[in-house]
């Protein structure tokens, strides 16, 4: 099987990465308790090492809208700094956005797992088999990917793993 070369980000892993940067680069120490997966420098290194293994990184505008909603809701002040982090992380990763239209998504799956997850599933299913991995904290999305014979990993598997 071909080694996956495209990493497709769900909201959870991206938000965790952004929140980690906010805590450690912008000094939002009070937000440290909100981190669920990146609790140590080693876990952060595991994630960034995992991300670096992929030539391409992508997400959807649906995921970016969820990130934006969290910034609007949780950061009354500091929004400019948070968006600066988002732009910096996306630039550093060479993030690509893939736009998908709602009407091209299967309604039954949208009802089941939601439009954001379907957008990620559709991106992965549109690629050559074995060339992409969906990174998420959503067990339902991961299960749906696996039912569709798509590669998917939970963020916890990545940050807890020993990288070669």
Task: Report on this structure.
The model has no long low-confidence stretch (mean pLDDT 91). It is built from eight helices and five strands, in the order βααβααβααβαβα. The protein has one domain (6-159): 3-Layer(aba) Sandwich (Rossmann fold), CATH 3.40.50.1010. The chain starts with 5 loop residues before the first strand and ends in a 5-residue tail after the last helix. The chain has helices spanning 11-25, 41-52, 61-74, 79-93, 107-113, 115-125, 139-147, 155-159; strands at residues 6-9, 56-59, 95-97, 132-136, 151-154. It has 164 residues and is α/β, with parallel strands linked by helices. Strands 3-2-1-4-5 form a five-stranded parallel sheet.
Domain module count: 1
Query: Based on the structure given, which CATH architecture is correct?
Result: 3-Layer(aba) Sandwich
Number of helices: 8
- Structural class per helix/strand content? alpha/beta
Low-confidence parts: none
H/E element string? Answer: EHHEHHEHHEHEH
Oligomeric status: single chain
